[in-house]
TrEMBL record:
The lineage of its organism: Bacteria, Pseudomonadati, Bacteroidota, Bacteroidia, Marinilabiliales. GO terms for molecular function: tRNA threonylcarbamoyladenosine dehydratase; ubiquitin-like modifier activating enzyme activity. Coiled coil: none annotated. Transmembrane segments: none annotated. Residues 10-238 form the THIF-type NAD/FAD binding fold domain. This is tRNA A37 threonylcarbamoyladenosine dehydratase. It comes from Mariniphaga anaerophila.
Amino acid sequence: MSWLERTELLVGPEKLEVLKNSNVLVVGLGGVGAYAAEMICRAGVGKMTIADGDVVDESNRNRQLPALTSTVGQPKTEVLAQRFRDINPEIELTTVNDFIRDEITIELLQSQPFDYVVDAIDTLSPKVFLINHSINMGLNVVSALGAGGKSDPAKVQVADISKSYNCKLGRVLRKRLAKLGIRKGFKVVFSPEEVAEGAVRLEEGQNKKSTVGTISYMPPVFGCFVASVVIRDLLDKKATTLIL
């Protein structure tokens, strides 16, 4: 009995082969990205690259997949690589234990023929850089917007970036991308829910100026939405190609 028996029952053997022959890049393995990556892995995608330069921190345990008391201090890429190979021993997995920005981004995008790029970066500049260069290279992209400060999973949506609203990260992202000539053309996962009052703490850090309160289930919900975009698009586009 194959571990993908239930997946094949749902999508059929031809589309299961499409997933097995697909190659997905996931950048950012925090609360959203790690869950997105695991759902993509569990769907049977045969080739993946996961990238993040961070290690598991004690504060990650309320919401992040790789975060356990036993994994604190370990690189997130290594923790997740072990999980993914335990899920699918046949997966072709590349790990990049580095923060993806500037020239590293371009090198990574050119390293393999990716069928889809997942942006789960929570820092604005490298997020803009990844999306911009992915689109300029003709790659399919889905981007996760802000899950922090939200608590209602029923309000999470998928839309073109131009249709996103009432999300601070989305607003700034649209503004930055517009200066680069990008106003539409890729999907985002977002929630228009108002950020809970008192959920933001201002602080100065290396990569961020504030910390936003986050509940356990919201980043996984965002991650599952992201994975669903990737999987459904891969199946739709590849199936259309096969028919043609």
